[in-house]
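Example 3.2
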Amino acid sequence: MRVLFTGGGTGGHIMPIIAVAEKVKEILNASGGIPNFLFIGSESPFNEVVANFGIPIKTIKTYKLRRYWSADNFADLVNLPIGIIQSFFYVYSFMPDVVFSKGGYASFPVALAAWVFHIPIIIHESDSVAGLANTIEGKMANKVAVSFTDAGNYFAKKKIIFTGNPVRREIFQGNKDRAIEEFGLKRDLPVILILGGSQGSQKINNIVLEAIVKIVTKVQVIHQCGVGNYKDVKQTIIDFGLANIENYHLYPFLLNNLNDAYAVSDLVISRAGANNIAEIINLNKPAILVPLLNSASGHQLKNAYYYSSKGAALLLDETNLTPNMLYDAIFGILNNKSKQTQMIRAARQLMSPNAAQLIADEVIKLGK
């Protein structure tokens, strides 16, 4: 079976694609089928994850529709027709049996080409608010998988299947002992994992650095600051005189060892992207969510509110966030075992461990 995958270039798009590809491959291999995969998307550092899984990659020019004034809107506009032409060529050359789209502006030209060629399409919407690309692609798609029931309001009811958000198998394979060695951790101190998302988070980074001296007197911190922010954070550490601070471990991005970082952590602080939340929830980790306020249609705030309302996470508004508030939130959870137990129990109620399987089943059904 020939399966074409497409999606935007962030971790929130790529990681679920890998999770679905794993399951499709597993199902086809078990039945004697031969999977033939291709990924079409924009240039992205996350394409390395796709390549490492063994999926060939074709990159296209993409046009990002910004919902604010920017001169880049005009510059990028040139890329749209080029990307569409490239997509038609690559889709025609590969001629898949089915297309799985994770959304994002890079996926639209590919989905359009597949629709013109009458190739079945299934899309997945991670968030409670559908993205612009998925809203358009939903009109062309045969099936729409959603993680939140609220997302179903954006699509034709007959197309919708509720699956939850797919999580890579690798995320569940973390090892605490290995993490202690990898990150140089002490066994007798709790560990906080701070995730700014694949693009990082300057706001979270700044608050963390202002509070870090006080925090690391009681815990250890693994801090993913984002590739684009790494140099600035390193310089800030030097400016603050924190170059040799103990119990603080800074990384631009955690990729191959993210599973170990999860395994060793007692608390996770994260943006509220659907992919990060799905990993945290499925691993039953107590969490503090700091949603990105300028995310498209406010989807991160709505994601965070949903999980916090269920008791699985604590929501902090970045607008009013201070170092003292962050410190109090952290130790309000770590010093309260019953609170941790409550969050873990709530997370178990919200898990979607079969999401990748459900989507893979639909992919194969459409492909046949």
